[in-house]
Amino acid sequence: MAVVSTPATLERAVPAMDNAEVLRIRNDFPVLDQLVNGQPLVYLDSGATSQNPLSVIEAEQEFYEQRNAAVHRGAHHLAVEATEAFEDARQTMADFIGADYVETIWTSNATEGLNLLSYALSNAGLWAAQGRGDQALKGLALKPGDEIVVTEMEHHANLIPWQELAFRTGATLRFIPIADDGSLRMDQAAAIIGPRTKVLAFTHASNVLGIINPVQELAALGHDAGALVVLDACQSAPHLPLDVKELDVDFAVFSGHKMLAPTGIGVLYGRQELLDILPPFLTGGSMITTVTMERAEYLPAPQRFEAGTQRISQAIALAAAANYLTETGLDRIHRWEADLGQRMVAGLEGIPGIRVLGPAAGKERIGLAAFDVEGVHAHDVGQFLDSRGIAVRVGHHCAQPLHRRLGLTATTRASAYLYNTTDDVDRFLEAVAGVRAYFRA
């Protein structure tokens, strides 16, 4: 049933990528063809922001050169073409995640999508109290005694909106703890998720631990309790085949800038029957049917949640990015990145004074590794690597509670993508091996 295949399954099912193919892929990414501090760039920070292939850059440029106009607002030729391109992009993204067209909402990023959802649930309580909207809203309204459940490994974007929703509604926020190896305590999850749980929100793949969570098992626990299940797919949508229907989640979010697209664009998926009864978050033009001086009536989803002038060129570019990933093959990308992740972890574990977070070598993970260097601050590690042309992320990676649980304040994170080679990983490992000696740690 699982959507995420094992490396052995992928090996039988799809042809493997290799360094020769990756080098051809790199030709599509002009930013990678440069020197940094006199060294060829090794970009290992795609977990934060990925690079853009020429096809994505050209798709956005072509929009501005040929059909720049407001969507859904004009009858002239350019407006019609812009609207068609914009809505074609929505269909592409719906197909990309196995959703229906009307279940795919444009946002600025995943953070906005999660805030949109948390505020819509707040408004559900207000509307229900005033007898406004569908009667089913009463079942979505949170109140004191209700519970919102997250996990201890969440990115701040999938934690703080739920903290604030609990504050606004009087609900209680609870979390599923992790074990020392970073895995979720599923035994405790079964005890925490219960009749009072109204929302269960969790990440598909951790941006720090690299661990892939058991989505269907968690979703089943949430639905058995009558809860809404919300998936943060920021670290999975760019790297794994994703089918929101098969995963059986009610909502999912991801950001374009982590999957070869520009910044300023993301997607919120929601089950149609839920989206059509949820109150809107932002209000204004483009999302209404009738407006008087006293009140307004709202369109159904997706326009219900897309007030104002839209992110048109970015949406078109995101669709081009999804097409690029689909044509390359997400199964193949996942397998290649999993191999790079294993190479990183095995190499890091062999360097004295290095502590790697998350699953040990040989255990399933996505293609990233966060680590601590004994006696050297993560920011110093990052600057040392940058001096050798290697780009990584340093800090708490917007996951302070997780770092605190692991006894750390900051780590260094290397994250690979489809344009990274085994030579990139080896250069990275060689540089990390010299960190402690350089700083005399």
Summarize the structure.
Keywords: Lyase, Pyridoxal phosphate, Transferase. With about 450 residues, the protein is of the alpha/beta class.
- Using the coordinates shown, work out and report the CATH topology of the largest domain: Aspartate Aminotransferase, domain 2
Can you identify the CATH class of the largest domain?
Answer: Alpha Beta
Poorly predicted regions are 1-12
User: What's the story with the biggest beta sheet?
Assistant: 7 strands, mixed
Return the average pLDDT rounded to an integer. 95
> Number of folding domains?
2
Assigned CATH superfamily of the largest domain: Type I PLP-dependent aspartate aminotransferase-like (Major domain)
Please tally the β strands and state the result: 17
What strand order characterises the main sheet?
4-10-9-8-7-5-6
Structural class determined from secondary elements: alpha/beta
Total of DSSP H or I helical runs spanning 4+ residues: 17
Beta-strand percentage range: 15-25%
Cα distance spanning the termini: 48 Å
EC number: 2.8.1.7
Function: Catalyzes the removal of elemental sulfur and selenium atoms from L-cysteine, L-cystine, L-selenocysteine, and L-selenocystine to produce L-alanine.
Cofactor: pyridoxal 5'-phosphate
Family: Belongs to the class-V pyridoxal-phosphate-dependent aminotransferase family. Csd subfamily.
